[in-house]
Amino acid sequence: MRKQVKNNVSWVGKVDWELEKFHGEEYSTHKGSTYNSYLIEEEKTVLIDTVWLPFGEEFVENLAKEIDLNKIDYIIANHGEIDHSGGLPALMKHIPNTPIYCTANAVKSLKGQFHKDWNFKTVKTGDSLDIGNGKSLVFVEMAMLHWPDSMAVYLTEDNILFSNDAFGQHYATENLFNDLVDQCELFEESIKYYANILTPFSAILRKKLDEVIALNLPIDIIATSHGVIWRDNPMQIIEKYSQWANDYQENQITILYDTMWNGTKLLAEKIAEGISSVDSEVVVKLYNIAKNDINDMITQVFKSKTVAIGSPTIGNNILHTTAALIHMMKILKFKNKKAAAFGCYGWSGESVKILNERMKDAGFEVSTEGYRSLWKPTIDAEKEAIEYGKKIASL
């Protein structure tokens, strides 16, 4: 069922309430998602993006109930990833010659995934498409936000920016506008989306935001590809992105650990106690890596100024859960963050040294040797861990 966005612009996408994982198993979607597709009906009829591949046939059936498919003059593919382009194979069976406007890289992506040579029309930043009634679509390349093929489209007169993956969230809702949903949930999912997907491209994003602002385009609505449509003060999410893209941190220290026989867990708790004893203002959060969602922990890392990470020694190394989390931190290229290491051991005791090395390799500033405890921490070791927490608080 279509929903009006503004004037002759409608939402014709899909709400996916059951989605639990995205990008394979890489990203957790506790609150589902939406695949936002938009229909513009001026003198020319334009379809902007489709839906994820499993919903392709359903999407086309529903779209055909709203409009004669043969009346679609242009298709805009802002991004080739199949959560946006997955409805194209089913759609193009009905209208195989309809031109698809996209970037040159999107042509490569779409051909590579669907092995079809559709009627592609490549566009660059600044190109425009007249759709009648005094309105045009203006194309803006958004390379590496978050794929090389990404772009956004601006609809003149209605002042709508179809932003693709930028400014979105994985958030299922029937109330598709930002002013109609729970604001805490909305911004929780927005920062999680940024932290886990867009962080590596922060430098590129800063430049792109400057470019968009310099265009001095009036923006009344930001129509994303996932989650809500920003119609109430849409610039608020651009302002948030400006903050998040500048090596973001809050007054937070996050303690991440895995443990075998609870010794390293005890150290984590004592370190937290030490931090709080000398700084009542700092937010301290503890997470058992093996028992918490990795994307939620990454979000907390993104918000933190310092990360304390702990693992016991096993096989002259660290636990695989901890190694995986650090690997993900490295991929995301966090900036302006400090790290400290800790752990228990029974024999060789290499974990703290390895944690320090891997956190340095992941781009964190490591300024302590770390703290390690032989066997289960004694009362004296607990006191030492508290003192180590105090030291972390002063980093």
Terminal Cα separation, in Å? 54 Å
CATH architecture of the largest domain: 4-Layer Sandwich
The count of β-strands is 23
Number of domains: 2
Cross-sheet strand order for the largest sheet: 1-2-7-8-9-10-11
Instruction: Provide the CATH superfamily of the largest domain.
Output: Ribonuclease Z/Hydroxyacylglutathione hydrolase-like
| Percent of residues in helices | 25-40%
The overall pLDDT, averaged over residues, is 96
Query: What fold name stands as the CATH topology of the largest domain?
Result: Metallo-beta-lactamase, Chain A
Class derived from helix and strand content: alpha/beta
What global shape is seen? Answer: elongated
CATH C-level class of the largest domain: Alpha Beta
- Report the β-strand fraction as a percent range: 15-25%
Give a quick summary of the entry.
The chain has 395 residues and is of the alpha/beta class. It is built from twelve helices and 23 strands.
Describe the structure.
The chain has 395 residues and is α/β, with parallel strands linked by helices. The chain folds into two domains: 242 residues, Ribonuclease Z/Hydroxyacylglutathione hydrolase-like (Metallo-beta-lactamase, Chain A); 142 residues, Rossmann fold, CATH 3.40.50.360. The protein contains twelve helices and 23 strands. The strands form five sheets. It has a seven-stranded mixed sheet. The chain has a six-stranded mixed sheet with strand order 12-13-14-15-16-17, with no helix packed on it. Strands 18, 19, 20, 21, 22 and 23 form a six-stranded parallel sheet that branches. A hairpin with a 4-residue loop joins strand 16 and strand 17. Helix 5 crosses helix 9, helix 8 packs across helix 12 and helix 10 packs parallel to helix 11. The relative contact order is 0.10. The model has no long low-confidence stretch (mean pLDDT 96).
